[in-house]
Amino acid sequence: MNTEGRVYDIAIIGGGVTGTAQAYVFTHFVKGISNVLLLEKNENVALVNSNTDSNAQTLHGGDTETNFSLEKALKMRDAECILGAFLEKYGEGAYRRLYKMALAVGADEVRLIKERFKMIHSYYPTLEFLGRESIARIEPKLVEGRNPETEVAALFRPNGFAVDYHRASECLYKEAMKSGKLDAFFKTKTRAITRTDGIYEIETNNAVFHAKAVAVAAGPFSILFAHSCGYAGEYTILPVAGNFYRTRAVILGGKVYTVQDPMFPFAAAHMDSSINDPSAMRIGPTADVIPFLERRHWATIADFLKTGVISKEGLRAIFEIIFRKDEKEEKRKVLRFAGKNVVYKIPVIGTWYFLKKAAQKIIPTLRYRDLEFARGEGGVRPQLVNMKTRALEMGTGKIVGDRDGDKLVFDITPSPGASDCLRNALVNAKKHFVPFLGSGYEFDDKKFTEEFPGAREAFGRIA
Ligand SMILES: Cc1cc2nc3c(=O)[nH]c(=O)nc-3n(C[C@H](O)[C@H](O)[C@H](O)COP(=O)(O)OP(=O)(O)OC[C@H]3O[C@@H](n4cnc5c(N)ncnc54)[C@H](O)[C@@H]3O)c2cc1C
């Protein structure tokens, strides 16, 4: 490959859904950009956490995620609107429209979602509050066999999305290629990013590339690049893997989430039909801390050890997070939670425990023999740990490298990173890369809003 002398406007490291969304936005909507580089270590886009079965296939819109603050919910409403608009135009085969539900079981959870409905319903015109009878009308299996004394209620929205993020990435990539401005190199692993005279040198296993600015969208590996460029030294990563179970015993028509504990926003199981096999339901994910930056890739244990977790500060932060008592309930909730997820891993007993603790909360009549462990499914959520405050920071993380003329953005993307991919790409383009690149570069607001008129308002909220 001859790239000698070529200086790309922007290089993107990582071809998951975060990287391909940026490739699409940079090549289509930034005036002045003439060439963008995409480097991916695998042979195709989105084969890691954005792969079809690595995640829960949900386009989170903020309505049925009971742990989101109003601010976060509205941000995700915008994310859903923007990615939804792209999918409806260019994403044939990458998504399905279906209902989304947050099921509350027991008086406390019912109270919680009643309050939540009051707080958010004016922002979601199609959101409904359902009592037991209405739930039974829509999905009788959610009520059948349930103790009639147990209160149940649900938040329900008929028009959500299930997404195959692998295919969505392929669509984003395909559209980016159509611009004629994207050079993509697969089986090309970035080893180092350095800067000389204001230009970034990107060393890979195949060649050395040059760019004026770099977007690092390498999932959990983004933190290592941030560290090597002198940023985010106070952060490390806790890789939280998620496993799924499958069943063909009960088929639901939509996505049924349960009420999330705000302390573990990634943890409460949900159930929906698999996007690539609607005759099977997926239940999960579980949450399981593993020492890998990439699931089932043993070599990435060495990468995990480089994240700073095995330093005095890292170990102290992890220890405190695990053993800290919850302020309200005076319980060591993280320890209990971790314990529960360890039990899930024990053969036979684990499946039985998952059935009792998670699956039957959704479908009370589900039996042990109905559940099958979905081997090979589920990726890693790179949860950020702040070693200074010794706290887990939930949600996606963005590190902007703009010191001393640097032009770097590192995205670290636990859930709901896939849902936010296109909104995030717009944020990166408008707020970071256009100012980084300076005069001669401009975001083309008019082109974007003409392309996606339905996403005009959501786009307008990106400053
Ligand atoms: C169990 C589970 C359930 C989830 N459910 C949802 C959900 O329902 N909805 C949702 O929105 N999100 C969900 N998520 C999160 C979602 O999967 C991620 O936010 C999203 O896939 C992140 O995309 P990404 O492109 O940033 O990272 P990835 O998909 O991990 O892509 C990173 C890419 O970078 C490449 N790369 C890494 N290092 C290098 C290097 N050195 N050189 C070149 N390339 C490199 C990798 O090969 C990979 O292709 C879930 C995650 C898990 C684990």
UniProtKB/TrEMBL annotation:
A Gene Ontology term for the protein's cellular component: cytoplasm
Cofactor: FAD
Keywords: FAD, Flavoprotein, Oxidoreductase
One Pfam short name: DAO
GO molecular function: (S)-2-hydroxyglutarate dehydrogenase activity
FAD dependent oxidoreductase domain mapped to chain residues: 9-302
Protein family: Belongs to the L2HGDH family.
Stated name of the protein: FAD dependent oxidoreductase domain-containing protein
Organism field: Candidatus Sungbacteria bacterium RIFCSPLOWO2_01_FULL_47_10
